[in-house]
Amino acid sequence: MAVYTESVNQNGTSISWGAIFAGALASAALAIILSVLGSGFGLAVVSPWSNSGIGAAAFGISAILWLSVTQIIASGFGGFLAGRLRVKWDGVASDEVYFRDTAHGFLTWAIALIVSVSLFASLLGSIVNNGVQSAAILANHATSAHHVGSPGKINNAQAYYLDSLFRRDIALADGISLLPESPRAVTPEIHRIFAQSLQNGSVSPADLKYVGQRISLSTGLPQEVAEKRVKDTYALISDAELATKMAADEARKASAYVTLWGFIALLIGAFTASFAATWGGRCRDDSPRT
């Protein structure tokens, strides 16, 4: 029976780079596969239709859990391989062996993380750019009503005040009853009035009367009924605006939680890889040489 005599650490180094790179490549490949699988599950539960699919909070929790599971499985597998494939250190104290195995696992996790980030660098860059552009658009919308626009352009607030300069009592204009006018002709002005009212938080009595007169003239409804229609429409628009802001805020919080817990998940991955490497190293040292 042939006896295998292991040549241990012939190059004099305490690091088995071959085992580390092998474990790192395996860990990175498994992490990418699990990430793609998780993305598929995420797209399956997200629906563009209202009241369908899961909410932003549930989606964020699911993403955090899947990222943690991915880190535990991929990092653990890579760390175990790094510890199992390393050379055996004869004549080295057990504490030193434990430290070296831990270092092997941590280096495996670090290299796997760098490889994974490098492969997805373009995707991460696109996400960051989209986030910056979205933030700029939101900031522009939030300040457009209070700042002067570019030369030659009039924003909603400015147009609202310009329109108010030419208002008159439509029902009694010059003592003559006016004919009904096309809703399309007055819609831009009404839109600006509603936009300004949303900025102020309510419809002013003057705006309520004016818009009611416009609607009454166009539809033939009594003034009181027209004003009630204005109030109901404003309430619907205001509720929709509030719901949109709440959904955006919930998505922002979910994104922040995913980022913070993603950091924790990466630390879990580093610990898992280091621990798995010590386990693989013990299996390597206990394995027979025949």
Structure report:
- With 290 residues, the protein is an all-alpha fold.
- The protein has two domains: 17-122 and 263-286; 142-242, no CATH class.
- Helices cover 74% and strands 0% of the residues.
- The protein contains eight helices and no strands.
- Mean pLDDT is 74; it is low at 1-11, 134-139, 141-154 and 172-177.
Query: How many individual domains?
Result: 2
Number of strands: 0
Give the distance, in angstroms, between the N- and C-terminal Cα atoms: 9 Å
| Secondary-structure-derived class | mainly alpha
The helix tally amounts to 8
Map the helices and strands.
Layout: H1 17-45, H2 56-85, H3 94-119, H4 121-143, H5 156-164, H6 183-200, H7 205-219, H8 223-286
Helix pairs in contact: 1-2, 1-3, 2-3, 2-8, 3-8, 5-6, 6-7, 7-8
Quick structural gist:
With about 290 residues, the chain is an all-alpha fold. About 75% of the residues lie in helices and about 0% in strands. It has 8 helices and no strands.
Keywords for this structure?
mainly alpha; 74% helix; disordered N terminus
